[in-house]
Structure formats: C-alpha cells, structure tokens
Amino acid sequence: MEPGLDCSTAEGIATITLRNPAKRNAMTPSMWRELPPLLAELADSPQVHAVVLTGYGATFCAGADIGSFSPDVDVQDLAVRAEEALAAFPGPTLAVVRGHCVGGGAQLAVACDLRFADEDARFGVTPARLGVVYAASSTQRLVRLAGPSATKHLLYSAELIGAARALRIGLADEVLPAGALEARVAEFTALLVSRSRLTQFTAKEYVDGPPDAARQRHWEQVARESGELTEGAAAFLERRPARFPWSP
C-alpha cells in the first residue's frame, strides 16, 4: 500500500487518515506536502463542519518517515507547514489517537483543537533522539497545551507516555476504554455538527489569539446579521433541534 492521505466526508465531518502502514503511518515528504492544500480545500467547502485526523489501522502516526527523505529536504520545515495549516483550519479539529502518536504525529495531534485517545495510546515528542532543535512555534504550542514542566519532560527525555498520563497533563482530552473510541467520536462529532458554527469559529479564533478591536467588531456585525441567536432561541423555546443558518 502506497503512503498517502485518505479523505472522506460524511454528515458534515471530513476524516483525514494518515496512511503508511508499513511504517506505522510515519509521514513521508509527499504526505506532509499534501496536508496543507487538502485542509485549504476542506476549509472552502460549505459541507465540512469539522475535521477528524486519524491514522490507518491500529496506530496514529510514528512521526516522520526518515528513510524517505533526501538530504536536501528540510523535514522540520515540511512538518511545521503542515502543523500550522492544521492549527489554522477555521472549524473544530479532532485528533483520534490509537497506538503510537510520536514525533511528527504528536506535532499534528497537538495542532488539533482536541485529542481523543484509546487507553492503549502512547504519546512522545522525540527530537532529542535525533539531535533536532524542535521548532519554536511547535514548542510554544505544546507549552500552551501541556504547560512548561510537561513540555520540558517530553522534549528533554523523548520518553513515551501512556494515555492516562497524557490525560493528566492535558495532552489528551478524553481517554476511552478499548472498543469505545469509535462510538464516542461519532457521538461527539454529531454533537459538533448540531451546534452553531458561528459560535465555534469565533470561539476558536478568540482562544487561539485575542483579536484586535476591528476583528471583534467584524464578528459582532456577523452575529447581528446571521440569525443564529433568533434560531437558537426559537429552537430552545419550541424544544426542537436548532437549524443554525450561518456558514462561512
């Protein structure tokens, strides 16, 4: 099976699957390069409410497929470009982690808004194994998620940690018992699709970086003109699911 990215869309959710099973879904140069334009295409689609990122089979991603890179390829640059594209996706993003989530795989998972993991998942940030200077932007994103001490532990040691510890330090948001992950992801993504995209888009933008006054005024105007609150209140009073009208 050739390495690559698989993408399918159903019920408002685009699922991107990292596929390189011979190398535990390690990322090749073409896989890194393929991710940003794919995310841009999904961001432009009115049918895509949120993105799920996962790995083929029983593992998420073992990092970069080092053997597939030529000496003139900047592995870190490719990884950071993909990471930044994932972080910049305007709607909710969810990493679904089974097995190993290591190196570049952890970099992608951290760039997602949320991470749901199988109880047997293993996480690791491993540049110290190769003598790599981890990108400043990637380091700071990990600090914001897991805190300074946990980030230092992960980067200093390159040690793999289990899902329970990942949950404690904030690297995972939910850990599910064996066999329960798929059902929980389906339940949660259906919930996301039922909620206001306007609320989700603005919440993501505000959490990721405080907007300036002009940007706040923009969203306030969008909110007034969107009809979201009118529909949300009517649905609440009528005890029915809301049919929120706004889309980006």
Task: Provide tags for this entry.
248 residues, alpha/beta, 3-stranded mixed beta sheet, 10 helices
Description:
The chain contains 10 helices and 9 strands. It is an alpha/beta fold and 248 residues long. The strands form 2 sheets. The chain has a 6-stranded mixed beta sheet with strand order 1-2-3-4-6-9, with helices on both faces. Helix 2 (75-88) links the parallel strand 3 and strand 4 (93-97). Helix 1 (29-43) runs parallel beside helix 2. It is globular.
In short:
The protein is α/β, with parallel strands linked by helices. 47% of the residues lie in helices and 17% in strands.
State the strand order across the main sheet: 1-2-3-4-6-9
How many helices does DSSP assign?
10
Radius of gyration: 19 Å
SSE order in H/E notation? EEHEHEEHEEHHEHEHHHH
Please give the alpha-carbon distance between the first and last residues. Answer: 36 Å
Average of pLDDT: 95
The amount of beta strand, in percent, is: 15-25%
Regions with pLDDT < 50 over 5+ consecutive residues?
Answer: none
Assembly form of the protein: single chain
- The residue fraction in helices comes out at 40-55%
Secondary structure class reads alpha/beta
Number of strands: 9
**Could you say which overall geometry the principal axes of the C-alpha atoms support?**
globular
Largest sheet: 6 strands, mixed
Outline the secondary-structure elements.
Layout: E1 4-10, E2 13-19, H1 29-43, E3 50-55, H2 75-88, E4 93-97, E5 100-102, H3 104-111, E6 114-118, E7 122-124, H4 136-146, H5 148-157, E8 161-162, H6 163-169, E9 174-176, H7 181-194, H8 197-208, H9 213-226, H10 228-238
Parallel strand pairs: 2-3, 3-4, 4-6, 5-7, 6-9
Antiparallel strand pairs: 1-2, 7-8
Helix pairs in contact: 1-2, 2-3, 4-5
